[in-house]
From TrEMBL:
<feature type="domain" description="Peptidase S54 rhomboid">
    <location>
        <begin position="68"/>
        <end position="200"/>
    </location>
</feature>
<keyword id="KW-1133">Transmembrane helix</keyword>
<protein>
    <submittedName>
        <fullName>Rhomboid family intramembrane serine protease</fullName>
        <ecNumber>3.4.21.-</ecNumber>
    </submittedName>
</protein>
<feature type="transmembrane region" description="Helical">
    <location>
        <begin position="216"/>
        <end position="235"/>
    </location>
</feature>
<feature type="transmembrane region" description="Helical">
    <location>
        <begin position="135"/>
        <end position="154"/>
    </location>
</feature>
<keyword id="KW-0472">Membrane</keyword>
<feature type="transmembrane region" description="Helical">
    <location>
        <begin position="161"/>
        <end position="181"/>
    </location>
</feature>
<keyword id="KW-0812">Transmembrane</keyword>
<dbReference type="GO" id="GO:0008233">
    <property type="term" value="F:peptidase activity"/>
</dbReference>
<dbReference type="InterPro" id="IPR050925">
    <property type="entry name" value="Rhomboid_protease_S54"/>
</dbReference>
<feature type="transmembrane region" description="Helical">
    <location>
        <begin position="73"/>
        <end position="99"/>
    </location>
</feature>
<feature type="transmembrane region" description="Helical">
    <location>
        <begin position="111"/>
        <end position="129"/>
    </location>
</feature>
<dbReference type="Pfam" id="PF01694">
    <property type="entry name" value="Rhomboid"/>
</dbReference>
<comment type="similarity">
    <text>Belongs to the peptidase S54 family.</text>
</comment>
<keyword id="KW-0645">Protease</keyword>
<dbReference type="InterPro" id="IPR035952">
    <property type="entry name" value="Rhomboid-like_sf"/>
</dbReference>
<feature type="transmembrane region" description="Helical">
    <location>
        <begin position="33"/>
        <end position="53"/>
    </location>
</feature>
Length: 240
């Protein structure tokens, strides 16, 4: 048995082609770490809402305040109704189900970007369609984006889509029975999430696929950011 130097082994490993998923991401074994991290952040935020009640007030999205307090566009997606833990539980169950299907296939970077765009899409829907002084919170917009992404990713697999149907129906119902959740956020998150998924899934296999995917996601992010800015300015409350 021969002995090899560290540099030789390192160079040899570079030549071994890394395994890739069907959408070009690095294949990873183990738990979906981004999915679990998102759930952990949501649960932590919920605990803070109980420990420090003013937290909820500072996290919810109020369209009229978005231009002055833009962090609400993101933080509102990690806050949930303290009037019903069912709101948090169902959303996190949905994030878990979607995450274990999507993250291993899309990869950590693509899945994280998809979640962020779905979140921003939900906020954009609220800015465009909700009353300026309404207050909205919850991960439902981001979750709607993940659900629609499943339809894009598994559009030919009816068995997987059937498994998600009950959770989808429950989340739609929640939008009408739990205070502070809006169909506007669901709609915005679903549309942007589906577009983000298309930017990843519909790019054909070729040596430039990753670059094309990230370029399309970057372009979509710019479009959503500009739309959010224009919408926030249009409805901003005259605080000064």
């Amino acid at each position: 048995m021969g002995v090899q130097c560290v540099e030789c082994v390192h160079e040899a490993n570079k030549k071994i082609p890394s395994q890739r998923t069907e959408f070009g991401a690095r294949a990873r074994q183990g738990v979906p770490i981004i999915t679990y991290s998102l759930i952990a952040v949501n649960v932590l935020a919920y605990i803070l809402q109980w420990v420090i009640p003013v937290t909820t007030q500072n996290m919810v999205l109020v369209p009229a305040l978005a231009a002055w307090e833009p962090w609400r566009l993101i933080t509102s997606a990690f806050a949930h109704s303290t009037g019903s833990i069912f709101h948090l539980a169902m959303n996190m169950y949905g994030v878990y189900l979607c995450g274990v299907f999507l993250e291993p296939r899309l990869g950590r970077a693509r899945f994280s970007w998809l979640y962020l765009l779905s979140t921003l899409g939900g906020s954009l829907g609220i800015l465009l369609l909700s009353p300026p002084l309404s207050a909205t919170l919850g991960a439902s917009g981001a979750l709607a984006g993940l659900f629609l992404s499943l339809f894009v990713v598994f559009r030919t697999n009816k068995q997987v889509l059937r498994q998600m149907a009950i959770v989808l129906v429950l989340n739609v119902v929640l939008g009408f029975v739990v205070s502070g959740i809006s169909w506007q956020g669901h709609l915005g998150g679903a549309v942007v999430g589906a577009l983000a998924a298309a930017c990843i899934v519909l790019v054909p296999r070729n040596p430039q696929r990753t670059k094309i995917q990230f370029s399309l996601l970057g372009a979509l992010t710019i479009v959503v950011a500009v739309a959010i800015y224009l919408s926030a300015v249009a409805v901003k409350w005259p605080l000064s």
